[in-house]
Amino acid sequence: MIILYRSVISYFVLLLFTRIMGKKQLSQLTYFDYIVGITVGSIAAAASVDRHIDVFESCFSIVVWSTLTLIISIVTLKSIKLRLWIDSEPLLIIDKGKVIYKNMKKAKYNMGDLLMQLRNKDVFYIKDVEVAVLEPDGKLSVLKKAEKETATCEDLGIKKPKAGMMEEIILDGNILVNHLKRVNKDKAWVFKKLKERNIKDIKNVVFLGLMPDNEIYIVTK
User: Fold this and answer.
1) Quick check: 15 pLDDT over 80?
2) Residues near 163 by Cβ (< 8 Å), separated by ≥ 6?
3) Measuring CA to CA, how many Å separate 109 from each of 87, 100, 137?
4) What separation in angstroms does the CA of 160 have from each of 153, 155, 188, 214?
5) Measured CA distances, 65 to 24, 39, 42, 78 (Å)
6) C-alpha dihedral sign at 173, 177, 180, 185
7) Which domains are assigned to the chain?
8) For the whole prediction, is pTM greater than 0.85?
9) Residue limits of the YetF C-terminal domain (predicted)?
10) What is the three-class DSSP state of 136?
11) Lowest mean pLDDT among 3-12, 175-184, 196-205
12) Mean of per-residue pLDDT scores for the chain
């Protein structure tokens, strides 16, 4: 019961400040964010199971770490120099098919790392790369040489239908009214489409999505 009590408190404090700090922790994980994430997680874990640690002191520590992270995030928005010092700056690794070894050495980045990340981008020959930049989050951004790029519809003079996202209309038997409004449809339209497919009970519809070309995709039980 004590562990349950401590875990619940730690969980919700951690959840609260994760939401406050935003999604950058997941989407743009720099070295600094990585260290903060590990430290805050370790504090929460220790507070959950170690009875020698005061759970409220641990939660206060999470508050301090989270607050400092927020303050630094706000300051770095206004100071480019501080942002580069904390998060580091992008490094040019390949320029016109040639590896810049001094930048690799600066980033402590070896050829094995480079080749692996190039393969992840479907690039198997360094000479095919126009520019490759090592981002602060450790990912490699790659621009292939023009002659090595895949031909696009524009290159071939082909007109392609406008792309877009599938709009969710029904989810688990429930009509998503706000989504209907976005596509200028109403419930009558939904029931008409269900009737056309001999679906009598909307509760049997797990998912109904509307494609950009106005085709519908249905998953039933």
Assistant:
1) no
2) 212
3) 16, 11, 13
4) 7, 12, 31, 16
5) 15, 9, 12, 21
6) positive
7) 2-85 (no CATH), 91-148 (3.30.240.20), 167-220 (3.30.240.20)
8) no
9) 78-207
10) coil
11) 3-12
12) 81
